[in-house]
Fold this sequence. Notes:
The chain has 69 residues and is of the alpha+beta class. The protein has one domain. The chain is 38% helix and 23% strand. It is built from two helices and three strands. The protein has helices at 32-49, 52-59; strands at residues 8-12, 15-20, 25-29. The chain has a three-stranded antiparallel sheet with strand order 1-2-3, covered by helices on one side. The longest helix is centred in the middle third of the chain and has 18 residues, at 32-49. The termini are far apart.
Amino acid sequence: MTARLxxxxxxxxxxxxxxxxxxxxxxxxxxxHEARDNLRAALELFFEEASPDEIQRRLESNLRxxxxx
Length: 69
C-alpha cells in the first residue's frame, strides 16, 4: 500500500518529534532525519498490524484541517 501522509517535525528539547496527524502516530529522534525515519518505521508497523477498520477510522477522524493566510 502506498499513501501520502502529512508529517510535522518540530524541535523538542535536545531532539525532534515527528507526527503524522492523519493517523495520530508520532515518533522522535536526535535529528530531523532520525525522527522522520523512526516515524516511517512506526507507520509501516501500524499498517502491517492495524485492521482495515482501524485504518479507515483514523483516516476519517473528526480532526479538521484548514489554512489561514
